[in-house]
Backbone:
């Protein structure tokens, strides 16, 4: 699975977005270390805070199927009804959920708004983060 292939799966998942309120559709594709892929899309709700981001949809699908070891996630988002993608880095809540399972070098690809995708690591996007090891006094990453 190449980065480009994972990004295209995220674009495909974007087509299943339910975003009638923001009219901003997002797709994600999560590559597990065993090679399996879980996709997700944003799913909004008339009670606005109940909506869910594409990234967390994909991660929760994977965890609920027994996967906890992840290599890379791709995210593609933009205005509904348009194939053109916006710059769509993951929101802070999604970064924190990634942090629960991922290594510092977990790769995050996101549409850059210029027809391509940007590549970052989780440590880039969430420095000095709080993770599971903090609860047991172990050293985390990004310190
Ligand atoms: N959204 C995502 O699904 N992922 C992101 O990385 C950014 C934002 C969704 C949430 C909401 O449904 C819509 O995009 C507008 O914020």
Residues:
């Amino acid at each position: 699975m190449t980065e480009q292939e994972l990004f295209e799966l995220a674009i495909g998942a974007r087509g299943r977005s339910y975003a009638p309120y923001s009219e901003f559709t997002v797709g994600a594709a999560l590559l597990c270390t065993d090679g399996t892929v879980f996709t997700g899309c944003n799913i909004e709700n008339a009670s606005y805070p109940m909506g869910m981001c594409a990234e967390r949809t994909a991660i929760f699908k994977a965890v609920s199927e027994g996967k906890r070891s992840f290599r890379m996630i791709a995210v593609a988002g933009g205005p509904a009804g348009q194939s053109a993608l916006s710059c769509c880095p993951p929101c802070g809540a999604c970064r924190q959920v990634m942090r629960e399972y991922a290594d510092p070098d977990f790769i995050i690809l996101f549409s850059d708004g210029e027809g391509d995708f940007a590549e970052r690591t989780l440590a880039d996007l969430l420095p000095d983060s709080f993770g599971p090891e903090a609860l047991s006094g172990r050293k985390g990453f990004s310190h």
About this structure: The chain has four helices and five strands. The pocket of tetrahydrodeoxyuridine is lined by residues 19, 22, 24, 26, 42, 44, 51, 53-55, 75, 77, 88, 90-91, 94 (CB under 6 Å). Strands lie at 24-32, 37-41, 70-79, 107-111, 117-121. The chain has a mean pLDDT of 96.
